[in-house]
Amino acid sequence: MRNSLLEQEAELFSRYLLNRSPDKLAVELYSRAIKQTSASLTPQDQKLLPFLKNNTWSMGIIDSGLAFINPHSEIRRRLYFMLSILESIPENHDLFLPKKRNQLYLIVVVYHGTRATIKALLGSLLIKMIA
Amino acid sequence: MEIPDYIVVGSGCTGAMAAQTLVEAGASVHMLDVGVVNDTYASLIPDKDFIGIRKTEAEQYRYWIGNEAEGVSWGKVKTGEHLTPSRKHLLQQVDKYLPLTSTSFFPMESLAYGGLGSGWGLGCCEFSKRELDAIGLEDSSMKTAYTTIAKRIGISGTQDDAAPFTLGGLTDYQPAPLMDRNHQLLLKKYTHHKNGFNKRGFFLGRPALALLTQDKDGRKKYAYQDMDFYSDKDESAYRPWITVNQLKRKGNFKYIGDRLVTEFLEHPDHIEVYCINIITDTTEVFKCKKLLLASGVLGTARIVLRSFKKENVKLPLLCNPYTYIPCIQPRMIGKEAEQKKMGFAQLSLFYDEHHTNEDVVMASIYSYQSLMLFRIIKEAPLNFVDARIIMRYLMSGILIMGIHHPEQRSPLKYLEMDRNEDSITGDQLKVGYELTEEEKKKKEEREKKYIKVMRSLGAYALKRINPGYGSSIHYAGTLPFSKNNTSYTLNPQGKLNGTQNIYVADGSGFNYLPAKGLTFSLMANAHLTALNALKSE
Ligand SMILES: Cc1cc2nc3c(=O)[nH]c(=O)nc-3n(C[C@H](O)[C@H](O)[C@H](O)COP(=O)(O)OP(=O)(O)OC[C@H]3O[C@@H](n4cnc5c(N)ncnc54)[C@H](O)[C@@H]3O)c2cc1C
């Protein structure tokens, strides 16, 4: 049961982080890593985690909010483990290694920075409402 | 059983160098060491460069993050916990056998085969005459010893503005390794405005590294695979276990691992060395004519404090204050990953305020690539999705500058032995470490100057990270050199005052700790201490 919950979590996090479904290895590594390094969920995490699973649209907002108000939360830790696992999968190298970009790409970067900041503000409010 | 002439405790940089000197002189030498080894990951790493591995190797997760994700650290971590899985064994058994308590000092100790040298950054510096005087070491014999050590371990470097602080008087060295574009740009800007920087006391140049750029003694030249934090396949980087492995082939040397030395007892004609056999958990006694302690400064303090059995003894301690500053060089952002790259420091920036080569501050500058993107994404206060896109774009322009400050003794920096019934040895080290207000102010001022100079070089500081006292991994000064025969000091030959035949070959004797990497000087001093022990026969 616990395994399948972690598998669902791996799928959810991978889709959120890279917009890609995780392969079998990534799911297995994630489940193993979380079991090995088990840290108990805080009351805030206990409320946020089911909310995230039922409202996948809120992933980015909650992640941003936590990065701002509680960067070491258990949810962020799990997302971080998933991110490190995904980076270690050869098929994902194209999303992590530096790539040549022209100067216009700066616009994209500024867009992402602004988006992250707005999401952080919205996320802080949403987290306060949920937990 | 025949009593060996010498027992050397420890297989780190100092133990390896002292043992080599003794063995080459024909003495019989036993090396007692804990010697943790872990080949789990090193043997899995293919002979390919970082980018090649990233694109193709199915099982790469094993050495990037580890089978149990032990390479992924989260939250506030202890010094050394950022090590990659294949270097994590440096920390194994330390909590169990080397307990330490402190509210302000968080060091990294190692019981690995090769000690901390199994993961060191290879930066080598000759200390100036003034610095050696302040330490309590004799200039001319140290200069000769530097040459001997350079011949043994292989040094690469070049004659540039950094050379007076790094290569010093060395003449036998290999060419410096190639630099990546990130560092080339920085150096180019410096060269154009060199006079201005020099006037302000700043000197930029290539570090001297214990890294081969030409084949030497069966070791291969550096291949620019950028796998320096994971693998020592070609042995281009000097690691002390290379020396110990070579010594094992000699008839007059014996390596005895899995032994934790706890104390010694000196008799008129021999010394008893007490150990815990960490496999059987039993006490064993080894005998020798002379003992050389090279168990790292904190390790040696434990052994000496236990052996002298006096209560309430406080020993001084030195450790370079350390701050690291991630910077961004806008000219490099958005550039493609470089295939031929190096994880070691590629430039050193020295601040010699009074142009005297004394009390110099040293910053080592690194590029960021093979430590993976996830580690820096964590540092951004953003959601992981946007942080990945932004940090990936910035990555080629990231430079990490690690600043070491010189360190003086003060009553606020000390260690003592404390009882701890739960520990295997029944005790633990207790450390107090604080800078005076004056020292803090000076440190702050210097760091601000570094940030300003980097800005003039075209690299902008992102934040200043102060990982706490102990994090420089440069320790010294617990049994300071002294010409007076006082207890808990060393005589100028490295002999422990109050004993007949016990020498200390690590950095315990240093009265002062220059900011320049100390290990090259530790090795030279270990060689001299071994020569002194031989001479006194
Ligand atoms: C990541 C990293 C980067 C570094 N970069 C640099 C650099 O660029 N330049 C520089 O100058 N320095 C650097 N250093 C510091 C350098 O590694 C140390 O100064 C040096 O290795 C110390 O050598 P040592 O022999 O004195 O002690 P250690 O390396 O601590 O060796 C101690 C040895 O003694 C053994 N031992 C300890 N206690 C006992 C006991 N009770 N019984 C038996 N055996 C025992 C251990 O197993 C070990 O083999 C770096 C260190 C690290 C970790």
Described by strand count, sense and barrel closure, the largest sheet of chain A is: none
- How many β-strands of chain B, per DSSP? 24
- What would you call the shape of chain A? flat
User: Which architecture name of the domain at 1-36 and 92-154 and 238-311 and 475-537 in chain B does CATH use?
Assistant: 3-Layer(bba) Sandwich
Biggest sheet architecture of chain B:
6 strands, antiparallel
* CATH homologous superfamily designation of the domain at 1-36 and 92-154 and 238-311 and 475-537 in chain B: FAD/NAD(P)-binding domain
Arithmetic mean pLDDT of chain A: 92
List low-confidence stretches of chain A: none
Number of helices of chain A: 6
Q: Class of the domain at 1-36 and 92-154 and 238-311 and 475-537 in chain B in CATH?
A: Alpha Beta
Overall mean pLDDT score of chain B?
A: 96
CATH topology assignment of the domain at 1-36 and 92-154 and 238-311 and 475-537 in chain B: FAD/NAD(P)-binding domain
Q: How many separate domains make up the residues of chain A?
A: 1
